[in-house]
Amino acid sequence: MAVLFGTEGLINHMTLIFGAVFALCGLMFRKTVANEILDIKFSFIGCMVGSMLTFIIIDNLFGIIKLSVVLSLLAWLAGGYFGGFFLWDGEAGE
């Protein structure tokens, strides 16, 4: 049976730190940049699912933190932008 949490687990302390940073950036980006400046829909759920799945998979496959962060940032943008069209959380409330 695989260990999910801990230093040897699938979700380690670096994953949780980057997940918190991605979540805070996603909320701030959606409110200030996407909705107010660019006037586009940006999905918080889409950006978090895309970035965290990409980070966990790339980090466990290759173990290169720089590659994991760069690819998960790209997945963060793609998931947030494309998720805004399909999910109903794309606009920050008034």
Alpha-beta content class: mainly alpha
Number of strands: 0
Please state the overall shape, judged from the principal axes of the Cα atoms: elongated
State the helicity in percent bands. 55-70%
- Rounded to an integer in angstroms, the radius of gyration calculated over CA atoms is 14 Å
- The overall number of domains is 1
Helix count, DSSP H or I runs of 4 or more residues: 3
Q: Extract low-pLDDT stretches.
A: none
What's the story with the biggest beta sheet?
A: none
Q: Percent of residues in beta strands?
A: under 5%
Write down the secondary-structure element order: HHH
**Average of per-residue pLDDT values:** 86
What gap, in angstroms, lies between the N and C termini? 46 Å
Structure explained in plain terms:
By secondary structure, this protein is mainly alpha-helical. The chain has one domain. Helices cover 69% and strands 0% of the residues. The protein contains 3 helices and no strands. It has helices at residues 13-37, 44-61, 65-86. The longest helix has 25 residues, at 13-37.
What topology does this entry show?
Blueprint: H1 13-37, H2 44-61, H3 65-86
List keywords for this structure.
single chain, 3 helices, elongated, 0% strand, mainly alpha, 94 residues
What is this structure, in a nutshell?
With 94 residues, the protein is mainly alpha-helical.
